[in-house]
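DM from R.C. (forwarded with permission)

"hey, sorry to bug you on a friday — could you get me a structure for this? deadline for the figure draft is monday and I only need the backbone to look sensible"
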Amino acid sequence: MHRLELLSAQDLARTLDRLASQVLESTADSHSLLLLGIPTRGVALAEVLAQRLEAMTGHPIDQGTVDPTFYRDDLERVGTRLGQPTDLPVALDGRQVVLVDDVIFTGRTVRAALEALQAWGRPTGVSLVAMVDRGHRELPIQPDFCGRVVPTRRQESIQLCLQAIDGEEGVYLVKPDP
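My reply, with the result:
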């Protein structure tokens, strides 16, 4: 496998600022925002976006986790992983929920996350932020806010690296060796 840089650390920072601005512009009341990261990288990405939004608004942005593992309809194909507990710092009712994921691919993870949300309450609205849209959708689900659209082959993957986890920052296309 080899990696091709899609976004450098500077490009990633600029893209995160743009995504935070777009989320803020789409919300009438920033106090109603609730960012929910989808494991695994979406959780870390939601934390970074919450920090950027806090810097823009001057107040903390509620942030948590929604784990869609047990709501998936393709567990046989993708396999199970140890679930990360859903962590909701506030009730969903009346909140503007922003689901955050690193990569949107088939749309099945997002569908499962939406189903998981129904078990926890009724938000005012739900939107989706994805750092990379790599195509190959199997369901009619699209991100409301997207950092980069990168058409890929099915055998390729996208890797989001964040300083706090990886010791480096950037977005990479991972290709199998020829």
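R.C.: lifesaver. The domain at 14-151 is CATH 3.40.50.2020 (Rossmann fold).
me: no worries. The helical segments are 9-25, 41-57, 75-78, 108-118, 163-166.
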